[in-house]
What we know:
Strand content: 5-15%
Strand order of the largest sheet: 1-2
Number of strands: 4
Structural class: mainly alpha
Amino acid sequence: MKGLALTLALSAVLLAAGCGGDSSPPVTTEAAPPVERLRISFPEGLNVREMGDRVAAVRTIAIEKRGVTPKLTRKRYLDAVAEARPPKPFLKDWKRGSMEGFLFPALYEFTQFTSGRELVSDQLTAFRKAFARVNLSYARSKNLTPYDVLKIASMIEKETVAPGERKLVSAVIYNRLRKQMPLGIDATIRYGLDIPGTESLTKAAIRSDNPYNSRRFPGLPPTPVANPGLASIKAAAHPARVNYVYYVRIPGTKRHFFTASESEFLRKVCEFGYACN
């Protein structure tokens, strides 16, 4: 009996210590992978599709150079953009389905765990903060809405390289709107027909009935044509006080010649070698 009692007591001790024959093996946990800090830069003037391309490019670099596979993909980013909505001040005349203009261009940090929704949310937060710094009183005096200002800013962003010309291009747009003239900004045609800046516009493109054809149709385009930075947004809200309604790029430079005279404009177009009537 003493031997049996000793055996039972020993078995109880072994079971309590997790050494029973039918007990589960000890659980082991693996350390979570370290959080990798990554960055993506969106320059001013990219459209939504180009931002998606940039997400794909940065993801490839992260995989090949850092050995990190981000959760963020081009598709997930663009899906998140499609689900997003602009800030409340823009909802009244916002063209549903297009988030063009609202994805603020800047440098953003993310990790391999960041989702498309999180990155888009960061861009919209940055946009709200930037737009809150813009005084819209002059634009409102011209019956322009915040969304109108954003459309104008996107055209300024695509048309200018020299910072000092932003307000001048803005003035041309305001003056043409006032005169009910077509804006004649080729960046809108390129956007509407998906024609890259490296290709010349054909006669068919210029004559097209696409709603973004600002050579044919007066008024602003249906949506912004790019995502502008703060400097262009401010210029769109506060144009220069000049009477210019024409401008043409000076060959070999990043600058434009501005004028209020159609005849002078046509002379310069011929002088610069673009076309002669």
